[in-house]
Write a structure and sequence with these properties.
Distance between the termini: 48 Å
Radius of gyration: 19 Å
Strand content: 15-25%
Mean pLDDT: 84
CATH topology: Beta-Lactamase
Oligomer: single chain
Order of helices and strands: HEEHEEEHH
CATH architecture: 2-Layer Sandwich
Shape: globular
Helix content: 40-55%
Number of strands: 5
Length: 159
């Protein structure tokens, strides 16, 4: 699962908007998006009682292990993983091989509702990340500090 090398602040804002809408529609406590390395890309909801950094790192490892297990049983991958606790549940979904959607919800929220909302949201997030990567590459090229340096400028440095 690849990570994004460069995503603009505007794309990250749109990711968080999508996460906020998802969290409300799914009645989840917290939703966040991480890259394949466990880096937080965006979040929605009250995560003050949750160590998002630790969950993000462990989730990335969990999804890598799930992929290996899937391959052992003849699947390319598992699209999602559900961890059910007594009071809290955690749903993990691959977002286009680019990122992982992490959803924390309680026993009052239906697993079916979360799964239903995840399908649409993962498609939307994937589109945002792909668009963001494309925008980021063109902006990164445009913002290069060396873009306007000419050979004459280089020659002047060595005089």
């Amino acid at each position: 699962m690849g990570s994004q090398n460069f995503i603009t602040a505007q794309v990250l804002e749109r990711v968080e908007e999508e996460l906020r809408g998802f969290r409300q529609a799914a009645k989840a406590r917290v939703a966040f998006l991480i890259d394949g390395n466990g880096q937080l890309l965006g979040q929605a909801g009250d995560a003050t009682k949750v160590d998002t950094t630790a969950i993000a790192a462990l989730t990335a490892s969990n999804m890598a292990a799930s992929k290996a297990i899937a391959e052992l049983v003849g699947e390319e991958k598992f699209g999602g993983v559900l961890h059910e606790g007594e009071d809290e549940h955690l749903h993990l979904s691959v977002v286009g091989g680019i990122a992982i959607l992490v959803v924390l919800f309680d026993a009052e929220t239906s697993i079916g509702l979360v799964r239903l909302r995840v399908k649409n949201t993962t498609k939307n997030l994937e589109a945002l990340l792909i668009q963001g990567a494309e925008e980021g590459v063109s902006e990164e090229e445009d913002l290069s500090p060396f873009a306007e340096i000419t050979e004459d400028d280089i020659d002047q440095l060595f005089l």
